[in-house]
Write a structure and sequence with these properties.
Chain lengths: ~140, ~400
Amino acid sequence: MSSADIYREIILDYYRHPRNFGKLERFDIASRDTNPLCGDEIEMQVKLGDGMKIEDVKFTGKGCAISQAAASMLTELAKGKPLEWVRSLAKEDVFKMLGNPDLGPSRVKCALLGMKVLKTGAYGYLGAHYDDPEEPGLR
Amino acid sequence: MLESEAINVERMRADFPILTRKVHGKRLVYLDNAATTQKPQAVIDALVRFYSTYNSNVHRSVHTLGEEATAAYEDSRKKTAEFVGAKPRDLVFVRGTTEAINLVGSAWGEKKVKKGDVMVATKMEHHSNIVPWQQLARRNGASLKYVGLDPDGTLDLAGFESLLREAPRLVALTHCSNVLGTVNDVAKLCSMARKAGATTLIDGAQSVPHMPVDVGAIGPDFYAFSGHKMLGPTGIGALVARKGILEEMDPFQTGGEMIRDVFDDHSTWNDVPYKFEAGTVNIADAIGLGAAVDYLEAIGMERVRDHELRLLDYAFKELASVRGLKIYGPTETRSRAGVISFNYADVHPHDLATILDEEGIAIRSGHHCAQPLMRWLDVPATSRASFYIYNAQDDVDALKAGIVKAGGLFKV
């Protein structure tokens, strides 16, 4: 796979025009994380509705096309789902949204930063703790 | 080769086995030399020779291997010291620049930096010349202040002078910025700091590998550099100290090797520099660094500098024609090192690095361990290409072509 496959039109579109970018006035969950290697940064806010459903979710952040597009796509995917769904969210779901690009280990972290932020916030709200399986010590 | 003759890059490249490898089927274009440099066969051979013919501990074993290892280790200290115009007894082998600065922060700083004291660093420091002072300031109740930069990425001299009026205990300053490439006039700045009563530490990680450095002429109290950025192995570097200052300092780490006598309730310390080399030292890599020094001496540091300046001029000319590309730091190449940090349109440096990697081109992307500088530049990250003796115009051409390709993909 070449970088032409990674940087497809749709990725660049989400990078330049991120959906659900911004802050919520009222929210139930907020979480933030950075990728210390590259300084990518994502903050996410979730507002819960009836039946613990994700009624609204927004994100802000800065970073590479992959981290920002993946986070934006993830907010679209999450909206309307029960909060419990976040537990079943897997990295493969994120890769699929991105078109299954062939990312090296360091870029995988960019792709998964949004998921990590969403999971950290949701798990915390549900009284659980999220161990990031991408951390070298836990692999 | 004559001293005036330019470096023959083709011949140079033949000395570096890694440069024959392919990355994604392409010739390796290695432009990440500010992070670490590649190793010539002579350095690799020195490591293999040590481990396969005279591996032994140093300073204590009286057998043949021990004598040979000690002689090679001390010979390497002598070479490395002389390479930067210092005396062997004033050179402590350390893991690298970071450890050298931590050593000073601990062994000098704990004793000398008191509550209310001011320490001065600059906005262009690498984290390694910030965080040890931050921690010392927290422990001892001192404060750390920063000299700002002028818009062209050079040091704000008026700001420096005004901070010197606060009679700082320490001035910690890089010789050459790993992001902007700015080369500071450290001799002048050290002299100003000394007159203000400050102790000075110069981070030489990006200067010693790339230009002639005479620590005696610069006149700092401490000067630190790393071996792996100058063709040597990782895990070895040097702290050079002004004559006499090491004697006044407490030990850094304690244990074997650094002691004179150990009693049940107290110990006395070995002479310098051994007082600061606790435990079994990094013998092999110190010897490898000696081989790297030999290699650079044979070329001549004036020629290394000249080669990089020529390449820098060429790169500035070529990259100027790429629309949307912004280079940070001084525009006058004579006052810079062979480091070019840039951003290209809205292509994030990580995306650019991924696209270039596919072309076999290795650059650095990110904050370069200089987050205060990134904030000053008001960018989250930059891309960085950095040169060394085995780089030539074909590498710059490849870089430019790769950037143009990224521009196509991102529809810049």
